[in-house]
Please model this.
Amino acid sequence: MYSVRKYLLLIFLLISFAAIAQPPQGVKWSKDGNYFYQIEDNQIEQIDLNAGALKVIVTKEQLTPAGASTPLAIENFFFANDGSKVLIYTNSKKVWRYNTRGDYWCFDLKDRKLQELGKGMPTSSLMFAKFSPDGKKVAYVSRYNIYVEDLSTGKINALTKDGTRELINGTFDWVYEEEFFCRDGFRWSPDGKKIAYWQMDAKNTKNYLMIDNTDSIYPFTKPVEYPIAGEAPSPFKIGVVNIASIKTTWMNIPTDPVLQSYVPRMEWAANNDELIVQHLNRKQNTSDLMLCNVNNGHSKTIYEEKDSAWIDILPEWDMEYSYGGWDWLDGGKDFLWASEKDGWRHLYKVTRDGKNETLVTTGNYDVMKINAIDEKNNYVYFEASPQNATQKYLYRTTLDGKGNAERISPSNEEGTHDYDISPQAKFALHSFSNYYTPPAFEWIALPSHRFINGNDVNASVNEHSADKSKSNITFFTIKTADNISMDAWMVKPSHFDSTKKYPVVFYVYTEPWGQNVKDEYGIADNALYQGSLADDGYIYISIDNRGTPVPKGREWRKCIYRKIGLINIHDQAMAAKEILKIRFVDTSRIAVWGWSGGGSATLNLMFQYPEIYKTGIAIAAVGNQFTYDNIYQERYMGLPQENKEDYIKGSPITYAKNLKGHLLYIHGTGDDNVHFNNAEMLLNELIKYNKQFQFMEYPNRTHSISEGEGTTLHLHTLYTNFLKQYCPPGAK
Model:
């Protein structure tokens, strides 16, 4: 019998490194859920989870183009609905964050024919190729236009012809990609006769001009269409193009002519005649679900929701929806929807006309992810953690709202569980870890959670059990003078002596986009520090304040509305004051560091509470909230035209004059996310008040500061040396 366990690590790596190639990634399941597919040695293999048998279904010889000596390097693959053909994605290139453009080849499993798609188009220019429902055609985007290619004839038809960098068809501008996770911008109709797509008009969106000083003797600029807070977003259009006539019908979706609005989600509405879209107003605090008639463009709102702060779209908390999907039930009569309107993120079953809804999940907990819908057996599987916000478990409940949440994850495995569940919820790839247990992986059957390769239930996880007593990480709760309780972890020095005093390094993010305190393996690692903080005698701490996206209910997450830079910073400082009361903490050696939003928090903590934080390292920080993109900043801070003072109060630059400690500020000049002018504005303010600091710019490096020979080692060395110099390690 073939052992599937040997491939668990391979699958885990495929999931973990999804950014390497075009998503969606994860386990490639068969439609019936009995098989999964994987890449091994540039071949595609099929694994039968019932029989434990492996079969090579596409060999590397079959994936070697005529005249070539080596097979295609498979970066991703996608099957046609009937399984007769497979698209091979290869030779990819990065578009902002992910490698979403490349070359596609189609392999026919019946006639063993391999054919290149998009002949005559530039190399590595095709994006989001998808089979038509009948598998006879493939649609893709290239150079801002949508094309359909007939696989039998090789004929390519352009469905749009007006695409440019400023008029984008079938994909998105920078800010939609970054903040709404919108990349794949077109959808086949169920009958394969039409394609619905987004068109973004960025011609009036101002460009950030990034200066390249190193790739040419004469510097040149790189424009990025980037609407900052206060600027109107690029107007959208939703079109439906008929494949035969190549005629587009535009949907009539009302928008504010000045403020504009957003459509972050669009799908076919379980038929060939209607689309369903989520329409958000500019402030992102009103969500309208609309049905659009694709024949005449008429639209109507079927379900409206309002929030006094903002409304999270589904991909913001469940990344599996980043590349599309809508949870239709009862053949399109109902759909599953999430809302925080009762104070917790819960699931509702909503009728197609929006007039009736049923609460599916009940209780004082947040749904953290929708894992699977088993409509045949009336269940939805989801992740939640009702008792401990640092952990995550699999639950299920009935779709009719009459059941109670049933925990599926084993009761003896406390920590973080992840599941990639097959169609019909038959099997799953299960991973588990906690702060002292390295990740363990196993294939399981559902709902029993039975380990399917062997006699011992959960044998794979049990084999990876670890000794909790050997960990020097402690999870605890801090209660501040404001009566706010926050989760935290602490890593104590390796040779800890409670009678001595040690320096503390705080790791922060603090904004609505990051949870630091999770009960999972490696959570307390510091990859920037050369060596071991614990071995060198540092206490390492992280705390999740109010406003972070932890599963503690709507009020916890959204009380930060219009107060980023205030509530989060106050909570962190008040928690730090409690830490400073601990007898083995050296109050004269307190450091803080963070990246991006964490860099902003570092600056604010150093400037607003200089009596606490003596040393800070801020990387790629937003120093001035007016500089950041409109979707993110306005979602959490409102429109600067209406509440400019909140932006000022929350920006680190406002408090730069208060700097007393030792500050190292680091930024890449090629950062297209948090632009380099943040650094120069902050530097000017510090200079104005004669505040001494250290500054390091990395030429042409992006937000990750990872490009270029020697960059990573240099950054790590800089970080480590500065910390050791100004916050010396070791006991006193």
